[in-house]
Amino acid sequence: MNSKNIQIFLIVCDVAFIIIYSLLFHLSRPMVSSSVAFVPQGSISQIISYMVDKNFDLHEKVDKYMLWMIGKPQSGWVNINQSPLTRGDFLYKLSHAKAPLKVITYIPGETKELLFVQIALAFDLSYEKLMQEYALATPYVDGFIVPETYYIPVGISEKHLVHFLLAHAKKYHKDVFEKIFGEFNETKWQKFIVIASIIQKEAANTDEMALVSSVIYNRLKKDMKLQMDGTLNYGQYSHLKITPQRIREDTSPYNTYMYKGLPPNPVCSVSKEAIFAAIFPKTTNYLYFVKNKNGTHTFSQNYETHLENIKN
């Protein structure tokens, strides 16, 4: 080997050493991460971009190639629970550390307070902190979190759990509203969700929802008080029986026996069926309804008939 070739060889070795040393230094840098992280579906580039957007300290170009060598990240929740943590550890976890999940089902008509009690018990989290994080993250008092079955990773923090639920809810409500109206209008959406929450509390089944909705609109149009028990089953009172004493003593704006108009906020989570009923009420002259012996409701147009239905 002549001297020129030796020089080229040494230069190549030096460059390779610098590259390898730089990569090792890059991978050994300390990194901060939550106990669990969510990885979306998509290409490695899309995943890295998503993680960067979520404030993870990653380099979009370098770490893309690192993951290409380590292995494509698994979509879904990944268990990062490690301390201390290097960038190399984090990238390896993205590809190899699927987080264990627990199932939580949020039922339509339930309140966020009882959802957070359920979550706090299942994941050993703080109910108070869940409520605090929710209040910090959104102005919506209730009715925003989507009632469905969630697969939630063990080890998630209160803050990340709340933000996960709210991010899903934001997309869900926007998609539903845009399919019907073509665009999302927050003021209209808020009114429909309030009405849908009352429907959810009052209707005995899905078939009744559009009828209950018609009663709500008919009473509002006539400037009548709604006088519906379901509006008093808000927050922590979700499962309490509404008594004459409660109606007299609850002075909150949720008491539709005391105040005209709609409550200021939704009283519970709402199903898609309840949202559709709120937007598309049945055309009726009904102003009253009462539970019958079959467990459903009997609807009527005038108070005299309503009193007769109460007796039956």
Automatic annotation (TrEMBL):
Swiss-Prot/TrEMBL keywords: Cell membrane, Cell wall biogenesis/degradation, Lyase, Membrane, Transmembrane, Transmembrane helix
GO cellular component: plasma membrane
GO molecular function, one term: lytic endotransglycosylase activity
Transmembrane segments: 6-25
UniProt membrane topology term: Single-pass membrane protein
Subcellular compartments: Cell membrane
Site (Important for catalytic activity): 202
EC number: 4.2.2.29
InterPro entries: MLTG-like
UniProt keyword Lyase present: yes
Gene Ontology process terms (BP): cell wall organization; peptidoglycan biosynthetic process
Domain of life where this protein originates: Bacteria
Keyword Cytoplasm in record: no
Catalytic activities: a peptidoglycan chain = a peptidoglycan chain with N-acetyl-1,6-anhydromuramyl-[peptide] at the reducing end + a peptidoglycan chain with N-acetylglucosamine at the non-reducing end
PANTHER family: ENDOLYTIC MUREIN TRANSGLYCOSYLASE
The protein's role, per its UniProt record: Functions as a peptidoglycan terminase that cleaves nascent peptidoglycan strands endolytically to terminate their elongation.
Family: Belongs to the transglycosylase MltG family.
Name this protein carries in UniProt: Endolytic murein transglycosylase
